[in-house]
Amino acid sequence: MCMASDKARPRSAVFSVHASKPDDIGAIEVVFDNQRAAEEFAANRSTDPGVLSASVTRYFVGELGTRRPISWFVDGVEQPRRFDRQPYPTDGGSCPSTEVPTRRPRNEPRQPEA
Fold it and tell me: Disordered: where is this region (predicted)?
C-alpha cells in the first residue's frame, strides 16, 4: 500500500540489518540503500562475540507490507533461505517420550553392566 503523496516518487528499497543475541532479540541496527552493503555488514556483524546471527530485510520506503527477508548469516557464512529442521517438538516427526525416567537413589551403588 502506497501513501498518496508517495505515488509520484520512484519506488525506493532499503535494507536493514538485525543481529540476534542469546539474551536479546535485538532491533534494526542500521539501514542501507543497497543490498550488497547490507549483506557485507551483516556477514561481518555475525562474527562479533555474542552475536548468534545477523539478517538482512528489504523494505520499500512508504509502502506498508513490503518487508521481505533477504538473507541471514552465522559466523560470516550466508545460510540457506530454506532448511530442514524441526524448530518445535509439535512440528511432526516422532513424538518425544512421555515415560518418566527411573532414577536410582543417590546412596544406592551402581550395578555393573553385563
Answer: 79-114
